[in-house]
Amino acid sequence: MDIVTAQEMYERDRVAMEAAGLDGKMLMENAGRAVAYDFLRHIQKEHKIVVLIGAGNNGGDGFVIARTLLNLGYDVEAWQVVPDAKTTGDAEAHKRIFQASGHPYRLLKSSEDLNTSLCRADVCIDAMLGIGVKGRLREPYADIVRLCNERSIVRLAVDLPSGVPADEGEEDFEAFQAHYTSIIEAPKQSAFLQHTQPYYGEWSVVEIGLPPKQLPDHRRRLWGRADVERTLPGREAHSHKGSHGKGLVIGGSRLMPGSVAMTARAALRSGAGLIAVSTDSEAIPAISPYVQEATFVEGENGGRVPDLGGYDGIAVGMGLGRNSMQETVVERLVREKETPLLVDADGLYLLKGFLGELKNREVPTVLTPHPGEFAHLTGLSIQEILRAPFSYSKEFAEKHGVYLVLKGPSTIITGPDGEQRVDVSGNAGLAKGGSGDVLSGILLSMMMQTEHVMDALSNGCFLHGSTADLLVQDGHSKVDLLASDVIEGLSRTFRTFSS
Ligand SMILES: NC(=O)C1=CN([C@@H]2O[C@H](COP(=O)(O)OP(=O)(O)OC[C@H]3O[C@@H](n4cnc5c(N)ncnc54)[C@H](OP(=O)(O)O)[C@@H]3O)[C@@H](O)[C@H]2O)[C@@H](O)CC1
Ligand SMILES: [K+]
Prior knowledge:
Blueprint: H1 6-20, H2 24-39, E1 48-53, H3 57-71, E2 75-80, H4 89-100, E3 106-107, H5 111-120, E4 123-127, H6 141-150, E5 154-158, E6 180-184, H7 197-200, E7 202-206, E8 220-222, H8 225-231, E9 246-250, H9 257-269, E10 274-279, H10 284-287, E11 295-298, E12 313-316, H11 324-335, E13 341-343, H12 346-351, E14 365-367, H13 371-378, H14 382-387, H15 389-400, E15 403-406, E16 411-414, E17 420-423, H16 435-449, H17 453-473, H18 483-496
Parallel strand pairs: 1-2, 1-4, 2-3, 4-5, 5-6, 6-7, 8-17, 9-10, 9-12, 10-11, 12-13, 13-14, 14-15
Antiparallel strand pairs: 15-16, 16-17
Helix pairs in contact: 2-3, 2-4, 3-4, 5-6, 8-17, 9-16, 9-18, 16-17, 16-18, 17-18
The protein binds ligand NPW and potassium ion.
Potassium ion binds at residues 58, 126-130, 157-162.
């Protein structure tokens, strides 16, 4: 499913109209009806429903929604919150159809009148502003949004909660706080940002009849279960351990043996054929009982860099430490040109001095920062990154020729050519030490089993997050879930794909 900016959404509508001969009124009818039927899951016949209608096309959708619900026998009061002269074009045409169907609407004169209606209502549908919003809400919208947010009422939003910008980059706004949003045709960037996503509540997407084959490909999409089903590699009957990749995990230290142990075990649990661990010799006794299947290479302790030949993939950085000897290891790995490399945690910290050399690598380099680590790599603040993660990821990945996995509740995976995928699986149970180490192991394993790196990374993120989701549905809670539980839970997720 594509993720769009406001501009890209307008472009899609334009293409649908030009290439397929659809017109704006038709699309509005499709949108309003699809949203109205989508809302039926959240409303009941005895509910009193208020539909708030703005001046633009989002308001036009509101007239279609109100008419559809009234035709179905629901108790609906339609409120146009702007003077009549403000509604024009397709929205005005649908207002006429609404009236011709025998339905009256109310015009907002004062917010007290509306407040009286809201006091009696059970459900409020926000069809005031959608992707056309610019800047902070003006009156009367700001006042109405405050009234709605204060009331204990079911709040449903059409396309976007009014006031929420469609695109990333905007921080100064006030908005309708929806319990549920019915998004038209494609989710907008703001459905995935930490500061805007909470305004959507739960959401899903309704289809309005745009011709999929003619639409521009903006190369930014949500990666879901169906995509994983399509691209996850199977296991051939005649395969052997060498067929699924021989990986090297470099990291861990005497005081931090667990991280690298989890990476190695997660890689094996997600299908890697062989895993070697290069670590401080003093850490080996702590790691080996946890991953009996791994072999060991005496590692960077004392400045020794392990022999890097013969591996299909290398992951470095988990529990590695940050001193000059470890920096030498990272430097050498960056200059090594034959093996795909994944860099995480301390490895990212040490990588900063060698960013300029990444472009020279001839095989994939994958960086897996959380926003704090990405801030260190870019010199930006965490807040700046969270405000515009799509743009900063794209800029960085293209500039350095790397794959970037920016971790978070919505993980953004960006390729060196700027393609982006978003994974929203997972839950707050993953906000614990060790989660990143486990993800690195899964990603290393996926990279060794799938030639298409974007698919490997997207699938790896999905396996990690959806395992955590499965575990909190059955057996665990978000409080007690440990990163190591996710490793052991991977088998359950794989079994859901086994056919
Ligand atoms: N064919 C299509 O395109 C389809 C579009 N569809 C639907 O249309 C929606 C997009 O419609 P849109 O472009 O008319 O924008 P919309 O969100 O209604 O807002 C425009 C109004 O907002 C006002 N306004 C702006 N900022 C403001 C502020 N800060 N505070 C207060 N007011 C502000 C602005 O006023 P102005 O600045 O012009 O005075 C103008 O009146 C989209 O989300 C989807 O729901 C579907 O029907 C499918 C087909
Ligand atoms: K809205």
